């Protein structure tokens, strides 16, 4: 010990130490600040929890009540977008799906029930499968050798804190088959995750403010991948005008729901026990005992559901039918302008009528359409040696007439990282998973640039990606109404040899947003009835997106199921067009005069639709009580059917009938020409009872059953659809005169033969007369 240390030690035995005193004084002075900082830190870290509790407390809920409202939902990876099992390849294979959470819900629990298998060649100490949520590792799955090559199942708990509004769930294979030099793309590096694996979420509702600015939330949330189920409440039996207003709303929500599908159960004077709902009220008739102030005009309001504090009611009200429709249209076309808990509509500009084939969801028929209008620009770019597909979705009008055409022209512009050397890299193009063509990806030109190249590069420096362009045609028969173009960049990995193969993920590919697809050269002409066009696109009713030339004939005494079927059908139409049915007409069976010049949907269950009996001779199917009648076709047995190049263009009515009596709940969809206006269409949705009519709507919402609805008559039996042989008896649309004559003669070979014989006779007669006149003139000159 040094002398200096000894002196210090002696002083410490006789004096009060200064350092502890100073430290204590500093802590006393800093204590309030520390407490404030700690409180701020706690508030910041728990901000989400505080906001949630505040919203719930505003609704008057206790924590126990909130937990009792929690529900568990499950989604398969297929439902989340994985059409095929996830293939994880290479030393770092990665694939996944996206999912989202509604704004009025929080996740309190999450599980992934995964079905998977992996390669027996993987080294367990170096390999594993990561489960990532929003790029954060939620769990790691080991790959022991004794379980390799087997179909395995595993349940993984995902921390709810990793889940936000918009999420991505990824499965990542970290794979190695040797401790020495390895091929990063070796065939033994694989794992497979089934798309039947399920993501299970426990969701707790959170009350939102009564604010119309939130619309369409909470009634529809684009984050929700589940089908929309939104009840509509009427005060007593709704009038035609009330149903028109409700149809505008259901078609709007159907357009928003899109692929999810939407159902609209109808209720009378009854507020649902839980969940959100739409309430339509006219005058002093307010359903469910709701207290509403005196109306000053068309009014829209958002209020809590008295039976479910975490849910909302959207009140659409008017003093008369006109004001009710104004309020409904204001929500359907002007919801972004609304705000506050209550809005009184003082004025609504007249909605401009739609033009044929201008539905927002349909491919424009009057100009080339850019890919940038059909897909987000970010989705048109991919990277890496195993990129995802570039997908461009579009909806075609179902009545495009592609006779004697090459197909739909596409002007494709794309760019890609050039290859170092010529190899097998290609851009593969498909339509609805049907291969169209393959375009080679070129290599860099290693030759010295010419004088022209140097001059061009001085003005426009060369970019990283090579621009390219290709023009091709897609055969029309390869494209259904809902179509998808798929572009896949395949990059060939050239082997360098042992310990030299290094994968650099420095390759890029893009499809330019200014690439175009053009259907403007195609006329609109279609043989009818065609229930495939109806089930896939709502045609011919959706030809005008606002349904201004459509009339819905409701039964005499509709049941709640009839109302629900009508509302859900309008939702199907809205899903097809992407636009609310603001001009649809709803009439009764006695208002036949109102059907002139319109396409008609007739809804009936049991014996409540007298118009079906009145039009029985025109319809291919008749239903009266338990009795049924079907017109059958002998088209398949015609001797000379091979003359007709397209059997779906038969133009003769059914020859035979089958009638029987049965007590069943089958639903029927039938199409025929309108007895009121030739060239107009009627689609009949009917059943012996309301339950059968519900089956028809379920079939229209089921993507697997929709494909089976075709021809002139379809019978729906639960999850089975049987379509009868189709015979089109009339046509809709028009062709230019020359094309019509050519097409008509092509379908009538005997007439064409007869015209050929007549033409030959006329030519022969003209030649005979001409030659005889010349002979007479020659003889006269000799004389």
TrEMBL record:
- What Pfam families does the record tag this protein with? BcsB (PF03170)
The protein's annotated pathway = Glycan metabolism; bacterial cellulose biosynthesis
Residues passing through the membrane, by range: 750-771
Q: So which residues are the signal peptide here?
A: 1-39
| Keywords in alphabetical order | c-di-GMP, Cell inner membrane, Cell membrane, Cellulose biosynthesis, Membrane, Signal, Transmembrane, Transmembrane helix
Q: Which InterPro entries match?
A: Cell_synth_B, Cell_synthase_bac
Q: How does it sit in the membrane?
A: Single-pass membrane protein
According to its UniProt entry, the function of this protein is described as:
Binds the cellulose synthase activator, bis-(3'-5') cyclic diguanylic acid (c-di-GMP).
Q: Which family does it belong to?
A: Belongs to the AcsB/BcsB family.
Question: What is the name of the protein in this document?
Answer: Cyclic di-GMP-binding protein
| Biological source species | Curvibacter cyanobacteriorum
Q: What is the lineage of its organism?
A: Bacteria, Pseudomonadati, Pseudomonadota, Betaproteobacteria, Burkholderiales
């Amino acid at each position: 010990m040094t002398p200096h240390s000894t002196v210090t030690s002696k002083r410490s035995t006789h004096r009060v130490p200064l350092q502890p005193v100073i430290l204590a004084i500093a802590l006393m002075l800093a204590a309030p600040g520390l407490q404030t900082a700690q409180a701020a830190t706690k508030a910041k870290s728990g901000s989400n929890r505080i906001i949630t509790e505040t919203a719930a407390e505003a609704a008057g809920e206790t924590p126990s009540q909130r937990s009792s409202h929690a529900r568990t939902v499950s989604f398969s990876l297929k439902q989340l977008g994985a059409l095929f099992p996830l293939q994880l390849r290479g030393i770092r294979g990665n694939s996944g799906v996206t999912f989202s959470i509604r704004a009025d819900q929080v996740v309190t629990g999450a599980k992934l029930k995964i079905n998977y298998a992996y390669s027996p060649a993987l080294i367990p100490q170096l390999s594993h499968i990561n489960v990532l949520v929003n790029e954060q590792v939620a769990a790691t799955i080991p790959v022991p050798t004794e379980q390799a090559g087997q179909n395995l199942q595993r349940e993984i708990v995902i921390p709810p804190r990793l889940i936000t509004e918009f999420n991505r769930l990824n499965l990542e294979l970290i794979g190695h088959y040797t401790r020495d030099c390895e091929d990063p793309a070796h065939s033994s590096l694989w794992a497979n995750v089934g798309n039947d694996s399920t993501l299970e979420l426990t969701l707790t509702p959170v009350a939102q403010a009564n604010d119309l600015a939130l619309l369409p939330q909470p009634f529809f949330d684009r984050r929700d991948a589940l089908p929309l189920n939104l009840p509509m409440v009427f005060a007593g039996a709704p009038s035609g005008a009330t149903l028109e207003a409700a149809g505008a709303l259901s078609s709007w929500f159907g357009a928003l729901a899109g692929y999810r599908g939407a159902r609209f159960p109808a209720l009378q004077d009854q507020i649902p026990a839980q969940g959100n709902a739409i309430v339509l009220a006219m005058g002093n008739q307010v359903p469910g005992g709701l207290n509403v102030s005196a109306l000053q005009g068309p009014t829209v309001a958002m209020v809590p559901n008295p039976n479910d504090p975490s849910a909302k009611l959207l009140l659409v009200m008017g003093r008369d039918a006109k004001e009710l429709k104004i309020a409904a249209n204001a929500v359907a076309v002007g919801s972004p302008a609304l705000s506050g808990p209550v809005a009184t509509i003082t004025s609504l500009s007249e909605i401009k009528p739609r033009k044929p084939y201008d539905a927002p969801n349909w491919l424009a028929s009057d100009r080339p359409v850019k890919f940038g209008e059909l897909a987000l620009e970010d989705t048109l770019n991919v990277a890496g040696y195993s990129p995802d597909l570039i997908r461009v979705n579009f909806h075609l009008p179902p009545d495009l007439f592609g006779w004697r055409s090459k197909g739909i022209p596409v002007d494709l512009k794309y760019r890609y990282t050039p290859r170092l050397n010529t190899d097998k890299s290609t851009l593969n193009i498909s339509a609805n998973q049907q291969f169209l063509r393959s375009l080679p990806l070129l290599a860099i030109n290693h030759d010295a640039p010419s004088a022209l190249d140097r001059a061009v590069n001085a003005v426009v420096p060369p970019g990283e990606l090579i621009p390219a362009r290709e023009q091709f045609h897609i055969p029309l028969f390869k494209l259904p109404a809902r179509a998808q173009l798929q572009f896949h960049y395949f990059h060939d990995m050239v082997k360098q040899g042992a310990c030299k193969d290094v994968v650099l993920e420095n390759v890029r590919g893009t499809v330019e947003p200014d690439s175009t697809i053009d259907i403007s050269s195609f006329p609109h002409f279609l043989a009818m009835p065609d229930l495939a066009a109806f089930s896939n696109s709502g045609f011919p009713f959706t030809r005008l997106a606002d349904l201004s030339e459509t009339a819905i004939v409701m039964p005499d005494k509709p049941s709640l199921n009839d109302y629900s079927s009508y509302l859900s059908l309008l939702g199907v139409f809205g899903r097809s067009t992407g636009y609310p049915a603001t001009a649809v007409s709803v009439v009764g069976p006695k208002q036949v005069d109102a059907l002139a010049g319109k396409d008609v949907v007739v809804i009936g269950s049991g014996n409540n639709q007298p118009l079906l009996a009145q039009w029985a001779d025109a319809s291919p199917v008749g239903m009266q009580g338990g009795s049924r009648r079907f017109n059958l076709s002998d088209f398949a047995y015609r001797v000379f059917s091979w003359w007709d190049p397209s059997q779906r263009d038969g133009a003769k009515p059914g020859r035979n009938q089958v009638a029987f009596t049965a007590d069943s709940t089958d639903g029927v969809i039938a199409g025929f020409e309108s007895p009121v206006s030739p060239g107009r269409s009627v689609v009949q949705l009917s059943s012996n009872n309301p339950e059968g009519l519900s089956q028809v709507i379920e079939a229209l919402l089921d993507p697997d059953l929709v494909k089976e609805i075709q021809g002139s008559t379809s019978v729906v039996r639960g999850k089975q659809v049987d379509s009868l042989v189709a015979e089109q008896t009339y046509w809709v649309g028009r062709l230019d005169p020359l094309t019509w004559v050519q097409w008509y003669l092509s379908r009538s070979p005997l007439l064409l033969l007869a015209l050929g014989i007549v033409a030959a006779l006329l030519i022969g007669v003209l030649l005979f007369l001409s030659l005889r006149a010349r002979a007479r003139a020659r003889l006269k000159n000799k004389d």
